[in-house]
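User: Could you go from structure to sequence for me? I need the amino acid at each position, not a summary. Structure tokens:
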């Protein structure tokens, strides 16, 4: 006797997830998984455009339906011994779980998207034209992220009316994302022997006022379009001369340093852009320090009142929050495509040893996603 439809769906999603997790695809090594997905989709008769190790499955709309993109990244961070081999376990808090590197971040989201995309009946009856976008390089440097190249190589994607990025969101609909600035803040002093510090000017202790201020005042609540975010200031690294990246290290501990550098990271809500945030950072640290901005990532607005974002929120019927992080919804915002974050993965499991995802969460997200796509 065949299983009932609910059991069949659960079994299908489990099998898909175990297969998807069976391809180890650390950032930079996505070729084999991209090859496998490409073979599968071409065998199904789908048009596939390959850009590097990234895939666009499905072509542009020809029937006037609004285009919706189902978006996920193929790469994962390096596995550990606790999650290298995919397996099913029981967890006292989450029930049946799938343990493997990348389950939450974000292969569970990919599987939910691919299962919906491959349902011919759903796609034929949906009010939306669906395209699957699976890209490489998300977990690495910004330069290695292939999503920008995908959007440049297949510019017809920028006419989409919604991009659903299936990053782990604990089943919430997380709108927009924070912007991010990393700046090297350099304090200048005068070198001296540590037995006679009055003959110098300690660059390290000159940073004390800024560091104390950051410790006491580093979070600001911000509301954008009714969605709550937090501006966050963090000093994430610091070094004296000789100890910085690529400087080789200084073995002498008896020198009052004449240079002290702090890496300052500002994560900021999407009510202003990169230039305004950089001006804010420079004003906060003051004019008596050197500031070099070394990384800029734009925010994405929530677009809560956009027609398809609103339709998604109402249809999925899940908690709505702001994305307190940076994600590739910002790359879609750059090209004018409304985008949101929604996926079954657990944010607390991303990059953890023994990474897992509850199977119930995958099934629930798949059903909610289908409900929206069915219209």
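Assistant: Here is the amino acid at each position, in order:
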């Amino acid at each position: 006797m065949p299983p009932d439809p609910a059991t069949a769906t659960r079994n299908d999603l489990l099998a898909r997830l175990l297969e998807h997790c069976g391809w180890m695809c650390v950032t930079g090594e996505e070729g084999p998984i991209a090859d496998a997905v490409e073979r599968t989709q071409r065998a199904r008769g789908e048009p596939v455009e390959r850009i590097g190790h990234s895939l666009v499955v499905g072509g542009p709309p020809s029937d006037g339906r609004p285009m919706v993109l189902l978006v996920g990244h193929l790469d994962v961070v390096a596995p550990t011994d606790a999650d290298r081999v995919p397996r099913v376990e029981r967890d006292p808090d989450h029930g049946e779980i799938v343990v493997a590197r990348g389950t939450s971040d974000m292969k569970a989201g990919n599987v939910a998207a691919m299962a919906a995309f491959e349902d011919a009946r759903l796609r034929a009856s949906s009010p939306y034209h669906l395209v699957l976008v699976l890209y490489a390089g998300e977990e690495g440097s910004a330069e290695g992220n292939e999503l920008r190249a995908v959007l440049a190589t297949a510019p017809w994607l920028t006419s989409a009316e919604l991009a659903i990025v299936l990053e782990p969101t604990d089943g919430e609909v997380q709108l927009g994302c924070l912007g991010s600035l990393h700046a090297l803040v350099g304090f200048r002093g005068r070198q001296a022997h540590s037995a006679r510090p009055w003959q110098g000017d300690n660059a390290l202790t000159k940073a004390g006022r800024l560091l104390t201020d950051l410790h006491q005042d580093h979070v600001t609540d911000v509301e954008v379009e009714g969605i709550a975010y937090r501006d966050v200031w963090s000093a994430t690294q610091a070094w004296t001369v000789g100890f910085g990246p690529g400087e080789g290290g200084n073995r002498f501990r008896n020198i009052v340093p004449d240079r002290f550098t702090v890496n300052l990271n500002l994560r900021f809500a999407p009510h202003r852009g990169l230039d305004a945030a950089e001006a804010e950072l420079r004003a906060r640290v003051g004019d008596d320090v050197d500031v070099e901005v070394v990384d800029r990532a734009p925010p994405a607005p929530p677009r809560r009142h956009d027609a398809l974002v609103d339709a998604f929120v109402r249809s999925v019927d899940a908690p709505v929050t702001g994305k307190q992080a940076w994600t590739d919804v910002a790359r879609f915002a750059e090209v004018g495509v409304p985008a949101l974050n929604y996926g079954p993965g657990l944010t607390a499991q991303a990059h953890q040893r023994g990474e897992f995802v509850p199977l119930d969460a995958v099934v629930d997200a798949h059903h909610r996603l289908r409900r929206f796509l069915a219209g």
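One structural detail worth keeping in mind: Residues 5-21 form the longest helix (17 residues).
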